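Title: Request for sanity check on Cation diffusion facilitator family transporter prediction

Description:
We are preparing a figure and want to confirm that the structure record we downloaded matches what your pipeline produces today. Could someone re-run it with the sequence below and paste the raw structure tokens into this thread? We only need the token string, no images.
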Amino acid sequence: MSSNDAQFESSRKKNKKLFIWAASLTLFFALVEIIYGFISGSLMMMGDGIHMGSDAFSLILALIATIMATKAATKNKTFGYKRFEPIAAFINGLTLVIIPIFIIAEAISRMINPIDIIPNQMLVVGIIGLIVNGIVGYILTKANSNLNVKSAMLHVLADLFTSVSVVIAALGIKYFGLIWLDPIGSILTSIIIIAGGVKITKASFNILMEGTPNGYSVDEIKNTLQEMNEDVTVEDVKVWCINEEEVYTLIRVKSSSKLVENMQNVIKELVSKHTKIPSNNIYLDVK
């Protein structure tokens, strides 16, 4: 096992433990809210419990992706299962865009047709949610960051923002009768969540489409190699990644002399130094 693979596996083992704690805590609190809401007849409590349940699902999905990413490569899956992480991040990113849209629609509906709100119950839910999401958020800050972790963290932050807005709205309603704070707070929070969801979705979609990772330039690689020798023609450069950590490049080079063929290791080291891509992840196609 290479040092990069060992580091990758160690990182995912750490993230796996943290995801288990985060998902377990979130799922437990979601079940408590749903059961308490059912017993007390509070739709708001049940609704928040269902929302927390969706976040627990997102954390479980991130956990599954982390576990799958550590599975060894096979003859049929030569890159292993490391793409599970950007796939999970893409799904979580989409939910961060879709769910807030429904929340905004409901908030607009409530602005047009206001409903009675029980501020005391709302305040209790908000404070408990704030504490639980704060703990889960703290747990995830200890994880080694990647798109999978960021998407899960964004779900938790979304809940954190929601809990803060619920507490503020509940206090405003309780002491000043400002019922409009509830839908307005929901809309503002949803807009922030959507912005983060779009960013995560775009980044993970770029990986899944084997797009050039951020920070890498195909033209710079071409120009660097072209300047080595006038006899060398760089016909094509492809840069892609399996996940955020593993970047690969394929370079097609044409030369009338044996220069390139005899200097493959030198070229790889040059590209590696210029791009920070490990030389083992650089492939040369010499014509």
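Thanks, this matches our download. The domain at 3-208 is CATH 1.20.1510.10 (Alpha-lytic protease prodomain-like).
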